[in-house]
Recover the amino acids of this structure.
């Protein structure tokens, strides 16, 4: 008796696995996962009932005719009750199956969206950088052009300093972030270039805390802000002014403060520079809002 019970239990378990795998095969083949919930409900109900009927028929044949040889006595009420119970089991299995695939597909879509957003951010950053370099080069070439005839020696020095800056910027363009010290070196080169052009009109005060060396910053970001302060601030005044560059660490965050003479509202001919806008866009793309 115990042998037949164990054999019947094993056959029930194996048959359940077999029928559920066949059911799953048809779900995938007919691509039910793409249907909306309204279209899916009748298919799931029919599929669960069909699977229940197939399970009951095969199980009755194996259990009553092959294992125990007891035969089957038809009873309509028992048949309906067994089919409803089995249908409920297969319906529950279907819900688990759909839940698993829903979570799996949701994660795939989430990863896909993250990759797509990363690609878009990378493209936008490259676009911003392509705007940034011509902007910087244009201003520097204007400075050189202004001194070629009047002060050729200083113009030559400007070209050398500009080439050093461009060489560094081309190298750093390959990285989204660079060490603060590298960016600071680029800022100093740029200030040396502008100091040659503006002479006594530009007074630079620089204060940098040692802890700042532990941070990374987007390449050319600080240089752009310094350039913006000189172009739209100090260079607009006949006597020039002081540009203050302060870098410190506060609450584990890098704090950079650039102060220059002038006002952000003092924009001639209604034209506005793109330096600050580009810097804001770069920071937003890298770190979010």
């Amino acid at each position: 008796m115990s042998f037949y019970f164990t054999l019947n239990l094993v056959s029930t378990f194996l048959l359940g696995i077999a029928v559920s795998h066949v059911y799953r095969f048809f779900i995938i083949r007919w691509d039910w996962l793409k249907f909306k919930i309204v279209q899916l409900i009748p298919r799931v109900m029919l599929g669960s009932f069909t699977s229940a009927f197939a399970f009951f028929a095969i199980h009755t044949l194996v259990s009553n005719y092959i294992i125990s040889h007891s035969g089957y006595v038809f009873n309509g009420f028992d048949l309906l009750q067994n089919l409803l119970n089995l249908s409920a089991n297969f319906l529950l299995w279907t819900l688990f199956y759909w839940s698993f695939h829903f979570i799996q597909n949701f994660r795939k879509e989430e990863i896909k969206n993250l990759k797509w957003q990363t690609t878009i951010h990378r493209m936008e950053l490259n676009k911003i950088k392509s705007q940034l370099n011509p902007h910087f080069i244009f201003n520097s070439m204007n400075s050189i052009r202004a001194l070629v005839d009047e002060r050729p020696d200083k113009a030559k020095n400007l070209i050398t300093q500009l080439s050093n800056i461009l060489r560094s910027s081309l190298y750093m363009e390959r990285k989204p972030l660079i060490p603060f010290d590298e960016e600071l070196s680029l800022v100093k080169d740029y200030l040396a270039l502008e100091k040659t052009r503006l002479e006594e009109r530009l007074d630079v005060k620089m204060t940098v805390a040692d802890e700042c060396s532990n941070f990374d910053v987007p390449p050319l970001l600080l240089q752009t802000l310094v350039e913006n302060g000189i172009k739209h601030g100090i260079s607009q005044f006949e006597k020039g002014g002081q540009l203050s560059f302060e870098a410190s660490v506060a609450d584990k965050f890098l704090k950079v403060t650039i102060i220059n003479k002038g006002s952000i509202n003092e924009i001639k001919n209604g034209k506005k520079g793109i330096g600050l806008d580009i810097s804001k866009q770069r920071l937003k793309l890298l770190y979010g809002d």
